[in-house]
Amino acid sequence: MLMRNILLLSLLSWACLAQQPVNLIDLSAFKSPSANWTIEGAVQAAYSDSSFQVATGKGILVNTIRNGKYHRTDDLSFGFSHGDIHLMFDFMLPKKGNSGVYLQSRYEVQLADSWGKKKLNFGDCGGIYERWDDVRGKGKEGYEGYAPMQNASKAPGLWQTMEIDFQAPRFDANGKKIQNAIFKKVILNGILIHENIEVLGVTRGAVSTQEVASAPILVQGDHTQVAFKNIRYETYDKPSVKMGPVTFDYYIGKFTEPVIGSAKAAESGKLDRLTYKVIKAKNDYLIHYKSEIEVPETDEYEFQSYWTGSGVVKVDGIELNQGAHWYSEMVSAKTKLTAGKHQLEVIQIKDFPWGPQALGLYVKRIGSHPVALHERTSLPDPEAVGLIEVKANAEPVFQRSFAFHQGKKKTHVIQVGDPSGMHYSYDLKQGALLHVWRGPFLNATQMWENRGEPQTSEPMGVSVSLDGQFPLVLAHQVQADSTELVYKGFRLKDGRPVFMYQWPAANLMLEDYIRPNASGTGLERTLTYKSTSSMQSASELVLGNSYHGIAKINSNLIGLQGQSYFVQWDGRTGEVLSPKNGLKQQRIPVQGNEISYQLIW
C-alpha cells in the first residue's frame, strides 16, 4: 500500500545543497580590507546599544567604523567572483544599524535595524534597494526598489540569518544582456520576504552601472557597525551530466515490485528524455527506461527522483533510489562517479488507480544547478493547498494542536495569539514555553487539510525556539522535573490565559501569566505562587538552559541560544552556572511570591 506523503515540492532542494564556508580566521578571504574590518571572537550588544562590545578571537567579521563613516573604500569585497549563487550568512546590527550586501557588487539587499517597524520600504531589512538615476529629475531619482513582504527583523544585538538565491544576468555571445538578474528567493530569519524579483538594472551604490556575468560580493562598510558569521555559499559554474537518447520497454500487468521477471514488453521505443507520457494506462503497468549519461568530471553526484507508485534508479547496475512514494516526495541518493559514460536505468510501476501519473529525475552536483533528465510536463506541479490561517486581530485567540519542538512532536500544546502580534506556543503538560514569535499568528493547514495529518500547526512570524523547560527549580535540581507538575487548567485575565499548576515537591500552587510587555518589544512572563507555605528560599528561577552558552549583556539582560533572543529581568542578582556537560544556566534566587521576566527578540 502506497503511503501518501503531502510535501512541498521544490525543484531546487536547498536542503541538499552543500555550502562552501568563508574562512574567518583572518581577512585573507577579502580583497584589500580597510581598517574598519577586523576578525573577532565574540560580539554582543543590548537592543538599546548603538555600538558593539567586542572580544578578541576568531570566527566573526566585524565592521568597527574606526575609520569613520561614508568612505567607499571601507566597503568590503570578497575574494571570489560569482554568477548564480546561493548565499547564506548570519549578521548582527546595533541599534539604528545600516549596511547592505551587494550581489555581484551591483544588486543590494539591505541590512538595517527595522525592528518593530510597521510600514516597510526598500530601505528596510531585507529590502532590495532602489535604483538611482539623476537624469530623472530632483525627487524622482530613486525608483524600482522592493520592500520585504513581511517584517522579519529581530532586535538589534541579536544574530539574524539571511539566505539569498540569486540568478545572475545572462549575456549573448556579443556581450548583450538577454536576461535580467533575478532574486529567486530571499529568506530572513526563516521568513520568505522576496520571491522571483527581477532587477532591471543595478541598484544605487553599485560599483558600476555596467552589468556583468561574474563579479565579487560586496558588503557596505561605511555606514554603521555590522558583524557577520557563518558565511557560506554555493556557486553554479561547474559542468554537470548530459544524457543521451532514451530507450523504453512498456509492460502491462499487475506489478507489485519494480521487477520485470519474465514479462513481455507490450511496446518499445526511443525518447529524447524521460517521460510518463508514453504510458497508456493509469495503473497496472511497468516501464523500464535505459540511457547513457556522460559525466564531465569525477565527483559525487546526487540523483533526486520523483514518482507516483514504486520505482528504482540504477547507475551501472547499482541500485540508488527505490521504494513506494508520492510524486511530491523527493527520494535522494549520492554516488561517486568517474569522468566518462555510465549506464542509467529507471524502472517505475503504478499498481493502484488513484493519484496522478508522474516521473521526474534530477542530477545534482555541488557547484552546478540540478539537471532535469525528464520532460518538464512529466512531473506535475504539486497539488495546490490553500493556507488555513488562524488570526488574532481583535482579541486573544487560543488554538489547541500538536506541534513540533526540537524535532519532537508535542501533544499537549496550546497556541496563544495576541492582537499585539506577539504570540507563543505552550506545553500544558510541562508548563513550558516552546516558541515565541512576532507577526501573523498561526498556520493551521496541516491540522485540517486532507486528513489532517500530521495535525500540527506552525508559527507564521519570526519565531524563536525556547528550551521547553519549566523555569523554576529546587536548589538540588539542574532543571525542573516536569512530571512533578499537575496541570489544573487556566483562567482568563484581560482575555489572556493564566495557566495553573500544582507543584507537590515545593508545596505550591502556581499561576503562569504570559502577555505582551509594556514596550511592545516581546513577552512578559509572571510566575505567582499560591500556597499556605512560603516558597523555599533555596529555590531558583532558571532563565537559560543552553549549550550555546549565555551572553551576559549587563546585570539583568542575557542573550540565549547563540544570541538568538534576549531575556531580561528586574534588578535581582544572579549568576551563570555550568551544572553539567557544558550546559549554561542563568540562575536567580526567588524571593517573595512572584517573579517576572521578559523575552525580547
Characteristics of this structure?
47 strands; 601 residues; eight-stranded antiparallel beta sheet; disordered N terminus; mainly beta
The radius of gyration over CA amounts to 28 Å
Number of helices: 1
Strand content: over 45%
Report the sheet with the most strands, covering strand number, pairing sense and barrel closure: 8 strands, antiparallel
Q: Tell me the overall shape.
A: globular
The total of beta strands comes to 47
Residue share in helix: under 10%
What's the end-to-end separation, in Å? 46 Å
Low-pLDDT sequence parts: 1-17
Mean pLDDT: 91
Counting helices, strands and paired strands, the structural category is mainly beta
Question: What does it look like?
Answer:
The radius of gyration is 28 Å and the shape is globular. Helices cover about 0% and strands about 50% of the residues. It has about 600 residues and is mostly beta strands. Residues about 1-15 have low confidence and may be disordered.
